[in-house]
């Protein structure tokens, strides 16, 4: 889209120059006005980058947003990779890889939907405040990752992933609601784009690193390590950041 706009712009400038050659008496004013128009109306690419930088600046200057986004980035890096890479390996170890993998992923998805439903039915259920609730749920998820290393039957993994998905789904609705109330309408689109990039952008990087790490460690070790790292991140956020002070904004 941007390249097409640039091409049209170049054709317009060329046509203006040709017209200026045909009419020398008005060529200089025409070119000057064209230059003034370019300065007054930046190219789409320039406006896009300006908008992105403005969104990043806003999120960084807001202490609560900066704290939450850094925390979620760390969680995404250490958790999304194991879920994307280790689960297919676990399904293969349990037997029928395709069917087992479908059951595991399906249970995680069903748990996520159940958690979203629960969050809608119990929107104000908190452990103190939103920040402490997030930390508590992530701590529990970290603990649940450890028994994933001991799974020897499909139903065991399905039960654990159903629980993990339910906890995650409950947080999804709470976090989305908090962001929409925390951020002004003019900055909401850019803020949500950054929030989505945390998971869409960091997830593939985490998966690639996880695949490389699994050349040296077992699936059980990966689940234990990921759970331990998530617990460590939660403790560091609890003791060394303002994450525990995040509160729900009034509607």
UniProtKB/TrEMBL annotation:
<dbReference type="InterPro" id="IPR020846">
    <property type="entry name" value="MFS_dom"/>
</dbReference>
<protein>
    <submittedName>
        <fullName>MFS transporter</fullName>
    </submittedName>
</protein>
<feature type="transmembrane region" description="Helical">
    <location>
        <begin position="134"/>
        <end position="153"/>
    </location>
</feature>
<keyword id="KW-0812">Transmembrane</keyword>
<dbReference type="GO" id="GO:0022857">
    <property type="term" value="F:transmembrane transporter activity"/>
</dbReference>
<dbReference type="Pfam" id="PF05977">
    <property type="entry name" value="MFS_3"/>
</dbReference>
<feature type="transmembrane region" description="Helical">
    <location>
        <begin position="103"/>
        <end position="122"/>
    </location>
</feature>
<keyword id="KW-0472">Membrane</keyword>
<feature type="transmembrane region" description="Helical">
    <location>
        <begin position="191"/>
        <end position="214"/>
    </location>
</feature>
<feature type="transmembrane region" description="Helical">
    <location>
        <begin position="69"/>
        <end position="91"/>
    </location>
</feature>
<dbReference type="GO" id="GO:0005886">
    <property type="term" value="C:plasma membrane"/>
</dbReference>
<keyword id="KW-1133">Transmembrane helix</keyword>
<feature type="domain" description="Major facilitator superfamily (MFS) profile">
    <location>
        <begin position="62"/>
        <end position="251"/>
    </location>
</feature>
<dbReference type="InterPro" id="IPR010290">
    <property type="entry name" value="TM_effector"/>
</dbReference>
<dbReference type="InterPro" id="IPR036259">
    <property type="entry name" value="MFS_trans_sf"/>
</dbReference>
<feature type="transmembrane region" description="Helical">
    <location>
        <begin position="220"/>
        <end position="239"/>
    </location>
</feature>
<keyword id="KW-1003">Cell membrane</keyword>
<keyword id="KW-0813">Transport</keyword>
<feature type="transmembrane region" description="Helical">
    <location>
        <begin position="159"/>
        <end position="179"/>
    </location>
</feature>
């Amino acid at each position: 889209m941007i390249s097409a706009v640039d091409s049209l712009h170049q054709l317009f400038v060329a046509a203006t120059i040709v017209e200026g050659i045909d009419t020398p008496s008005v060529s200089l004013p025409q070119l000057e006005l064209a230059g003034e128009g370019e300065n007054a109306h930046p190219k789409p690419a320039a406006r896009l980058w300006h908008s992105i930088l403005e969104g990043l600046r806003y999120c960084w200057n807001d202490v609560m947003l900066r704290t939450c986004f850094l925390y979620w980035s760390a969680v995404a890096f250490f958790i999304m990779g194991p879920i994307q890479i280790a689960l297919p390996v676990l399904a293969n170890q349990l037997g029928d890889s395709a069917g087992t993998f479908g059951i595991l992923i399906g249970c995680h998805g069903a748990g996520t939907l159940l958690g979203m439903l629960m969050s809608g039915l119990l929107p104000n259920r908190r452990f103190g405040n939103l920040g402490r609730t997030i930390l508590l749920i992530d701590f529990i998820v970290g603990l649940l990752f450890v028994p994933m290393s001991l799974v020897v039957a499909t139903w065991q993994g399905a039960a654990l992933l159903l629980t993990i998905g339910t906890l995650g789904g409950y947080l999804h609705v709470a976090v989305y609601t908090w962001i929409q109330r925390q951020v002004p309408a003019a900055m909401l689109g850019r803020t949500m784009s950054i929030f989505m990039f945390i998971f869409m952008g960091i997830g593939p990087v985490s998966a690639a690193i996880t695949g490389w790490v699994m050349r040296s460690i077992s699936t059980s070790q990966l689940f234990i390590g990921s759970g331990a790292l998530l617990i460590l991140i939660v403790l560091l956020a609890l003791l060394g950041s303002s994450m525990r002070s995040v509160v729900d904004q009034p509607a």
